Every structure is written in C-alpha cells, then in structure tokens.
Amino acid sequence: MSAARPSPPVSRIAKYSEIRTQIKDGDLLLLRGDYLLSRVFERATHAAYSHATIAMWWGDRLMLLQAEAAGVQAVPLSV
After folding, report:
1. 36: part of which helix (H) or strand (E)?
2. What does pTM read for this prediction?
3. Which residue has the higher pLDDT, 43 or 64?
C-alpha cells in the first residue's frame, strides 16, 4: 500500500494567463512534476512540491532560474 501524494495547499488553481502580470522578479515558484524523480523527492520530503524556481523578467520574457546538475539554468516559463 502506498501513501497518497500530498496535495498543494491552494484554494484554487490559477491560470497562467491570469497571474502572469502579477509575477515579480525574485518570486519563488513551487512546482510539482510527474516524473519518477519528482515523486521520489515529494515522498522523501513529505512535501507537496518537488521543485522550486525563482522568477525573473528579461525584457517582456518571464524566465525561471533553476538549479540543475550542470549549474543554474534560465528557462522560459512559457513557449
């Protein structure tokens, strides 16, 4: 028997298009993944999230700064 995956503490799920303009430089975004490694992190830490990123505006492009094995990467939040 496996334990249930923790649920994130949110009152409602917001659409990206609704909140994009409210995201500021330095905001911390907590994410959940469906990959096996994401679920391992969630289970090992008893957390609802497996990944944290920092938001950064580069011109009109919203980027996420994230730590990876190769170092810190900047990836676009939307494509």
Report:
1. helix 36-45
2. 0.69
3. 64
Strands (E), 1-79: 28-31, 51-58, 61-68, 71-76
Q: Is 43 helix (H, G, I), strand (E, B) or coil?
A: helix
Question: Looking at per-residue confidence, does 6 or 18 come out higher?
Answer: 18
Count of C-beta atoms within a 10 Å radius of residue 2: 5
14: pLDDT confidence band, cut at 50, 70 and 90?
Answer: confident
Q: Helix (H, G, I), strand (E, B), or coil: what is residue 46?
A: coil
**Which of 35, 33, 78 has its CA nearest to residue 58?**
78
Amino acid at 11: S
> ∠31-66-50 over CA atoms, to 5°?
30
